Amino acid sequence: MNITREVVTDLLPIYFSGEASSDTKSLVEEYFRDNPDFERMARSAGTPLETLRSVAPVAAGSEKEKRDLESVRCGLDRRKWMFGLCLCLTLSPLFFYFTHGHLVSLMIGDFLWEAAFYWSMAALFWFLYFARLRWRTASLVAAISLTLIPIPFAMHFANAPGPTTAGIFAGGICIWIAAALIWISYFRQRSH
Predict the structure, then answer these.
(1) Given 23, 85, 160, 167, which residue has the most CB atoms within 10 angstroms?
(2) What DSSP assignment string belongs to 86-120?
(3) Rounded CA separation 18/76 (Å)
């Protein structure tokens, strides 16, 4: 049987690790006898693997472990708060409230726009929750979305004034202020 160099090259990690069967060892050693230049090259390439095995693993310092655990704890806390915000924004249009002697739902009449606003914000935060983006990417997505999402709702309420218009505009301005702060932090991170 004719064994090619590629087959032997594929067998070298098993051979050098000592996990090869006796048949595989004899096959590789026979190929080495026929090709001494390849054997020299293979053994010199296998040397770093052997030196890595002989080195004792580096123990992490207690301060590094403490920082790593604190980072994981902060990340879990952030995800917990993000989940709460997503759930609140998703469920808030389904709530009822009592006003002027009537039970009112956000799912009827003029309040449908308000429900759509809550659900569009919820969609953004659910995306950020499940996407697990890096911090800079997530802040960029949030800044763009918080800048653009309030525009159609502000336009609608500007054309249809009513008793809730002032509250909607105040909410939109608060969201745009949050977007401005996220934009500022995004560009400040970029300059570092």
Answers:
(1) 85
(2) HHHHHHGGG-EEEETTEEEETTSTTHHHHHHHHHH
(3) 42
Q: Do residues 162 and 148 lie in contact, with contact meaning Cβ atoms separated by under 8 Å?
A: no
Q: Are 129 and 86 in contact (CB under 8 A)?
A: yes
CA-CA distances (angstroms) from residue 146 to 90, 122, 138, 160, 189? 16, 11, 12, 22, 19
Angle at CA of residue 189, ends 187 and 192, nearest 5°:
110
Quick check: 186 and 142 in contact, CB under 8 A? no
Q: Are the beta carbons of 127 and 120 closer than 8 angstroms? A: no
- Distance CA(7)–CA(182), nearest Å, equals 55
* Rounded distance between C-alpha atoms, residue 42 and residue 19, angstroms: 17
- pTM flag (> 0.70): no
pLDDT tens per residue across span 87-143: 988 888 787 777 778 777 766 666 677 778 888 888 888 988 888 888 788 888 888
